[in-house]
Amino acid sequence: MSETKKTVHGIMAEFTSVDSLLSACRRIRDAGYTKTDAFTPFPVHGIDKALGIKPTKLPWIALVGGVSGTLIALTMQIWMNGIDYKYIISGKPYISLPAFMPVAFELTILLASFGAFFGMWALNGLPRFSNPMFTDPRFDRATDDRFFLYIDARDARYDSEGVRKLFADTGSEYINEVIEDDTPTKIPKPIFMVWGTMVAASVIPLLVVLTMRVTNSSQPRFHVFPDMDFSPAKDAQMSTSLFVDNRSMRPDVPGTVARGQMEESLDVLTGIDSEKLAQIDAPRADRLVRAYFFDDEVAKAEEVAEVTEAEGEAAAPSVMDTTPWVKEIPIKVDAALIEKGQQQFGIYCSVCHGLNGRGNGLVNQRAQSINSPTWVPPSNMHQDSLYSDKYPDGKLYSTITNGIRKMPGYAGQIKLRDRWAIVAYVRALQKSQNASIDLVPPSQKAAVEKAVADAKAELERQAAEAEKAEAERKAKEEKEKAEAAAKDAPAE
Amino acid sequence: MSEHAAPDIKPADHPAFQLPASLSALQTPLLFGGIVALLGGLLIGMFVSYMQPDMPRFGMSAYLTAFLYVLTVVLGGLFFVMIQHLVRAGWSVVVRRIAEFLMLMVIPLAILFVPIILSLFFPNSLFAWTDPDFYTEHGISQSVADQKGYFLWEPFFAIRAVFYFFVWAILAMFFWRGSTEQDETGEVAATERMQAWAGPGIIAFALTLSFAAFDWGMSLAPMWFSTMFGVYMFAGGILGAHCAITLGTYLLQRNGAMKDEVTPEHYHDLGKYIFGFTFFWTYIAFSQYMLIWYGNIPEETEWFFYRQEGAFGTLSLALIFFHWLIPFLGTMPRHIRRNPHVMAFWAAYILVMHFVDIYWIVMPEARLLDGSMATFGGIFGVLASLLCVAGMSSLIVGLILKLAGDNRLVPVRDPRLGESLAFENI
């Protein structure tokens, strides 16, 4: 040992057996020392008690870790899947506890283990690279066949002589002061070099990537993950041998409804009062549900066939008359809807039915002019039998949807709500051609009456003119006749 | 490990290893009371079946509940003995004999299985598939019925049952004789022999237990299946066995036997097992539930459906809290596991909950399989179930006491006895 004064950390004593160690432990515990430690080559049961070490706080740290794991997992999943980004998975509710349990369980275990592992580090003051105990070469035998007991100099009762005496009393044959470790604390250069090399090397991949990003190359691309770059997934319209129909783009499973697309009731979908229908004709109501809610193609075809063909049959009460149609448009009617209806009517209906709905659109005019033999003239919408009291809104909607006589169904071209919009517009159109003057607001009544009077006067004037022209024409004819007669007469 | 402060091994004929007189006096009352209660419970159960024609299987189901309750705990004892030999455990030697008493009870249980075999002769008296019309009444196609019929066929079922009991009885007898003969001879070779056979024994045990659970528990709902079911029954049984060992040890010590041999250290280890297996049971039960819940296939969800409705829905929730949460938190702190009195309480508590678990497995299937909801069967139904389980348990405890009276309570010449006596956790 060098002569210079060194910090004394405490005093250690060596023992040769577990029993002598344990009795010494009890002695120093009873003497009131608390900052003590024992070093043994293997775990010695009962040494905690012998040294008077209090039960560890570690279980509490693990418990706190575990409980926070549970709470973090549940909060995270409820927030993610139930609040922030609502997403239906496997038809379960957004917040479905059973599905959250596995993650909660795993995170509980993870954080409890972290709590136990790092809590143990913290409680033991780890990581610690050196201990002053190592200064004594005899201490090496603590890993072999010797037991050591240590009293720290910071203990309130510490007194060098007293401790030595106490250890001597316990039968220890080797007692020594634990002094400051004077081995160099400088980290050897090779460690720095290895560390520095590794840091430098770790930058290389990053540099390679950066270089590639800013330079051009005629070489083919370097594929880090070829199976991701050349995915075996099929594109739309490609064929595949995997399915019988060779389509790689799979049709929707029957009953599939895109999100937000199934907000309508059966009444809105079909124009039929389904509750009434269920009372009158339960099998058909059932078929409608299958057709519209479960996309059953067979049921749909049957329904369309029944509705469109029934009109052609003269046979006893047609399905068009027996069906309990929805009496009024089942969606909200406002100005916007009617405007939409006007636009859609102009696009799809007016070509045949005419912009005014009198059934004389361009197609009709052309068909008439070429005397098409198969042409069935479109209906004039301004007739009694098509007014809402005889032809309910639902029936009109159904006609637009499924077609009638020569008119095809427009379900494929016109959106559901737009078909109802057309119904609304047609009703407005009908009213426009058959309205009483009382419906006109009083402020405009005078103007309308004046216009009507003007129109009447104009009509009368035209009628008078026509009468006059007729009279003139007749007079002219008579005159011509008389002249002709006069011409003929002399010739005889 | 360390030999310091080890209590001396007492001579083999020391009174500490004998069954205390206060307990042996209970033999006869328990045996006779057990038989009377069991028969009474069965009769009342049959009466309930008779009065409520929509529950033809109720009476025998109450019996099966009691039977499976005791059997799972007894088989847990067999597993405990084998696993201790397999891993050469030293700590458990002082309590191992109690598990050995438990495991030997598979032999009387084989006799108590006779009524269940007899029920096969009366269609629909316990297992719905014994009804020849079962498949047609439930619209199950003939091909499925044929496939099921290979396995759920009365003669094959009976042969399997005989085989299971044969395997268990062979295992139980082997480990019992090895242990008790060592009491006399003290030969170390017996321990080595048992250790060598523990591995194959555990494999045979795992397979037979799984299939027995499929046969006697799962086939109650003939169209339902869960590969987890055998493990589930095992989880409840091994938990019950640890509780039975703890409670048995505690009662023996209270009555003056093995006072110095079993210390808080042993209770601590048994407590760790109870704590761990409480969660293991939950883990298995939830694994079984979650996969079925997530898959949401009608043929699988059916089983849970009848346990989520009505009174059994409440019971399912009760299982979560009273079979898992409360005992889990209750046995979590170390100082509780080191306290024999508190651990004895938790052991008794979990043994009661294990019965609730078995009841929850068996009784909903006592209803008519026509979509009607499961019930407890009224006052008489509950009485029948309780009498059956009380009777069966008393009978088995009485037999254990009889066995214990004729043998030592500790393997007195086991080579690891010293290690067990000196065992310390910390």
Briefly summarize what is shown.
The complex is a heterodimer of chains A (492) and B (426). Chain A has 492 residues and is mainly alpha-helical.
What does this 3D model show about the protein?
The complex is a heterodimer of chains A (492) and B (426). Chain A starts with 7 loop residues before the first strand and ends with a helix. Chain A is 53% helix and 6% strand. Chain A is built from 17 helices and 6 strands. Chain A has helices spanning 18-30, 47-51, 58-84, 97-124, 160-169, 189-214, 226-229, 266-270, 274-280, 282-293, 297-310, 319-322, 335-353, 362-369, 393-402, 416-432, 442-491; strands at residues 8-15, 36-39, 147-152, 174-179, 403-404, 407-408. Chain A is mostly helical. In chain A, helix 3 (58-84) packs antiparallel against helix 4 (97-124) and helix 9 packs across helix 10. The model of chain A has no long low-confidence stretch (mean pLDDT 85). A 4-stranded antiparallel sheet of chain A has the order 2-3-1-4. In chain B, helix 3 crosses helix 11 and helix 11 runs antiparallel to helix 12. Chain B starts with 20 loop residues before the first helix and ends in a 5-residue tail after the last helix. Chain B is globular and about 70 Å long. In chain B, 73% of the residues lie in helices and 0% in strands. By secondary structure, chain B is mainly α. Chain B is built from 18 helices and no strands. Classes of the chains: A mainly alpha (492), B mainly alpha (426).
